[in-house]
Amino acid sequence: MLKICLQDFDGSCKGSAASGEWGRPIENMAKGRPMLEKKARIAGDAEIVDDAIMSRRSVRAFLPDMVDDHTIRDILTVAARAPSGTNMQPWRVYVAKGGTKQRITDAIMNSGIRAEKADWDEYRYYPTQFFEPYLTRRRANGFGLYGALGIGRREVDKMRAQHDRNFVFFDAPVGMIFTIDRRLNQGSWIDYGMFLQNIMVAARGRGLHTCPQAAFAPYHRQIRPVLDIPDEEIVVCGMALGYEDTSKPENAFRTDRVPLEEWVKFSE
Description:
CATH topology of the largest domain: NADH Oxidase
Number of domains: 2
Mean pLDDT: 90
Number of helices: 8
Largest sheet: 4 strands, antiparallel
Order of helices and strands: EEHHHEHHHEHEHE
Number of strands: 6
CATH architecture of the largest domain: 3-Layer(aba) Sandwich
Oligomer: single chain
Low-confidence stretches: 1-24
CATH superfamily of the largest domain: NADH Oxidase
């Protein structure tokens, strides 16, 4: 629930209120008082934005309900407001639905290349050897997800089957493949990350969920002919987009985050 400190014009706090507290919403209480109106508006905007960010997560089971092209276009248009060095806008997006999405799935699943044998020859997402504290965080993530699915630590075949669900975009009706010109440098990859985040947050604002998927990157040879991706473009990742299937146990899994004190240093 949204709460703000109601300040008088001298800056003193007159107490806190929540939306609807004392019988009327903050907007009505602040009406006609510019300072309170501004504070209420800022607090409301912050709550909306924070909720979109905090509710974003990797959803791994989607409903078949289609997302219309107008909504997809709106999301991508908003996301393209991401910052990029000298406004180069390095992103390129291939949106796949229906038969095209299925052909991507078939090309990868029929390749005979297991995920653990896939060649990350365009770029490497993960370090060659994991080390602390990242190793512990990675393991916790894997154990948490497989635990939610009832998959034991030695059930390798079930783990592989779950990983392969990446390639059906976790049954989402919309799959996106993202590429970048290979002649661009690391700065443009930073820009790309902000663009991807914008897509995921904009999707939440429309009641949709996503799952960013680096798993597609090593299968660029299988994906290229389906989407007619030119050789000068590197496949960065994929992303599933759709409505969450809340009945699936994998969607009950939540990752945690390290406390602020462990990774932030304030200096004056």
